Amino acid sequence: xxxxxxxxxxxxxxxxxxxxxxxxxxxxxxxxxxxxxxxxxxxxxxxxxxxxxxxxxxxxxxxxxxxxxxxxxxxxxxxxxxxxxxxxxxxxxxxxxxxxxxxxxxxxxxxxxxxxxxxxxxxxxxxxxxxxxxxxxxxxxxxxxxxxxxxxxxxxxxxxxxxxxxxxxxxxxxxxxxxxxxxxxxxxxxxxxxxxxxxxxxxxxxxxxxxxxxxxxxxxxxxxxxxxxxxxxxxxxxxxxxxxxxxxxxxxxxxxxxxxxxxxxxxxxxxxxxxxxxxxxxxxxxxxxxxxxxxxxxxxxxxxxxxxxxxxxxxxxxxxxxxxxxxxxxxxxxxxxxxxxxxxxxxxxxxxxxxxxxxxxxxxxxxxxxxxxxx
Length: 375
Description:
Layout: H1 7-20, E1 25-30, H2 35-47, H3 55-58, H4 60-64, H5 66-69, E2 75-82, E3 99-100, H6 109-128, E4 132-135, H7 143-150, E5 154-155, E6 161-162, E7 170-177, H8 196-200, E8 206-208, E9 211-212, H9 218-224, E10 240-242, H10 246-249, H11 276-280, H12 284-290, H13 300-315, H14 321-326, H15 333-346, H16 348-361, H17 365-373
Parallel strand pairs: 3-10
Antiparallel strand pairs: 1-2, 2-7, 4-7, 5-6, 8-9
Helix pairs in contact: 1-6, 13-15, 15-16, 15-17, 16-17
């Protein structure tokens, strides 16, 4: 099909409008994926390294090919929103404080991007008469391969997008359209021999370059994983309580990164190095209030306090012993189990003294196993 003669002008008008909405980069690609991308997805799913993220396999056919998701789509308008942190944002927190990934220290980026994408999609539909659909990463779209095809960046060895302009700090979104617009030039791979992102991973989650075992990834373990964190991995989490930025932060392309300008991504003081003691004492209402509009709210209090108690167990802070002990009677078995482990690490003598009575009165099998296992 021949591209309409006015398509280049339409493309640039869309680009200008999207930039006016606050998107930092706007590029265009065909609404399709290569056979190589489809095969990489097939291999990843066959390996079973996606853990509890069953939605990846459930929508595999639509995820692999935008044409299956929407047969009429011709062009993907791929946008990037910079959330680049400052050096202070990446500074190490003290042992009695938790580390939250920089993307989650303020408003949920899905909501921020979706609002802008909706404005963009409506404008494209009204001005061109085309059909449109918008996607953020909650939909079965392979965003990173599309972003590379559009020239936004390339999928680095840490499996995330790397940009020569913004480093590793871009949120992505797409508007698919029935418009037939010229595609931008694709971006090549510029990782070279570098393997900093692979080597820095605290849990050694990378099987190799470009291949991640999600089941070992700190972000997966603290966010998507619904159950207890495997015992052998708990000490490796340190004080990371929601996500991990290690592989992103060490990328040498970050020397070109820019600080985010979107107000919704400016870190809240309460979510920057928050004290573990205060977090461990949150009830459900307090959790919801603290994480209002935050992506952290999605995982719920129990999973979050599980993470906090693992960090407490890794802290070597005697002042946190009483906090761990308080959570031994928490209503959530997931929280109680993490509290048992934290207490066994911080105060083994007290743990041994309490083990008999608490284990005898424990109704949950998994928590009883935690008491039996000790450290």
